[in-house]
Q: What sequence folds into this?
């Protein structure tokens, strides 16, 4: 009787163990799409770094560009794009980036949030160029007029540095001819965009309060009654908040010193129309908008980074560090709300 009982218990425990192993195996092979992780994908289109443009994102992925990675029981939506590929008609920079389907004007507003970490930025570029080694992780983009960008949020890290910078740019909505447009940059953690290297291959000192690759942080863009409210949070850094009026310009009469210094070489010295982006149709963008292009820096020392592109060969770019990769674990989009 004792032998029978012992054998029965042993068989029972073995079966339990086999079931547990089977469940663990099955859990490892569950297929996740980006829309399973961040379920707002029905409100967006996406343009990938190879030129693929898709309007239906539920149960959609494309390996190497837009897919899911799981780390330490957390699922992340990956946005990855090379230095050179196929991009939009209005940009020289590649992107794997969402574009909001719903449009709005600043007076009506909208809200976009994201919790993310930068996993890689291009390791090739010209250190004198402000856009080198950077990627845009969130935007407000105009859909009419000059189609300028009242907001771009960047992550940038110089080669050899452990910590990078998070900053945001406001592009003026210029009067008349748009050829004199420029971005005013504001630091969140680390440097703003205007801090560059003295030579193509030498870098400024590493920012003491910067953000490392793989370090999680969040942003909130809340446009309410024409005012843009920005909030940036990170576990190991103080929360930072900003306000910017999108319907009344602060750049309609005088050029800031930052612009006089940074843009002097390319002659961007325009002023903004007095009512900025008032009444102009806008929409959000989110993902990885790579700023490291292969254009000649001597032609535009602010935006042409001279980054390696291997003649557009995406696999060679990925194998040699010439790409941007951003992971989001949470995000939301909706109407603007009264600021707290």
A:
């Amino acid at each position: 009787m004792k032998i029978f009982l012992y054998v029965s218990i042993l068989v029972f425990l073995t079966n339990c163990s086999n079931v547990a192993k089977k469940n663990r195996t099955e859990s490892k092979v569950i297929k996740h799409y980006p829309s399973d992780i961040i379920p707002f994908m029905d409100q967006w289109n996406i343009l990938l770094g190879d030129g693929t443009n898709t309007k239906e994102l539920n149960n959609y992925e494309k390996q190497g560009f837009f897919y899911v990675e799981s780390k330490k029981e957390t699922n992340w939506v990956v946005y990855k794009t090379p230095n050179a590929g196929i991009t939009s008609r209005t940009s020289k920079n590649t992107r794997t980036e969402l574009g909001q389907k719903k449009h709005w004007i600043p007076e009506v507003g909208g809200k976009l949030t994201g919790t993310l970490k930068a996993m890689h930025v291009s390791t090739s570029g010209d250190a004198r160029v402000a856009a080198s080694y950077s990627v845009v992780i969130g935007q407000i983009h105009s859909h009419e007029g000059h189609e300028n960008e009242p907001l771009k949020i960047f992550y940038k890290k110089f080669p050899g540095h452990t910590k990078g910078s998070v900053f945001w740019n406001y592009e003026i909505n210029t009067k008349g001819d748009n050829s004199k447009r420029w971005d005013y940059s504001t630091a969140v953690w680390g440097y703003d965009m205007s801090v560059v290297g003295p030579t193509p291959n030498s870098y400024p000192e590493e920012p003491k309060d910067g953000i490392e690759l793989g370090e999680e942080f969040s942003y909130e863009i809340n446009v309410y009654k024409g005012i843009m409210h920005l909030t940036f949070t990170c576990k190991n850094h103080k929360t930072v908040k900003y306000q910017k009026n999108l319907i009344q310009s602060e750049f309609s009469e005088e050029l800031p010193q930052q612009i006089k210094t940074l843009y002097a070489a390319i002659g961007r010295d325009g002023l903004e129309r007095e009512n900025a982006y008032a009444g102009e149709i806008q929409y959000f963008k989110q993902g990885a908008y790579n700023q490291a292009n292969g254009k000649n820096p001597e032609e535009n020392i602010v935006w042409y980074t001279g980054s390696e592109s291997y003649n557009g060969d995406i696999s060679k770019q990925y194998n040699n560090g010439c790409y941007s990769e951003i992971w989001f674990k949470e995000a939301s989009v909706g109407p603007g709300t009264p600021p707290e």
Q: What stands out?
A: The mean pLDDT is 93. The chain is about 15% helix and 35% strand. The two ends are 72 Å apart (CA to CA).
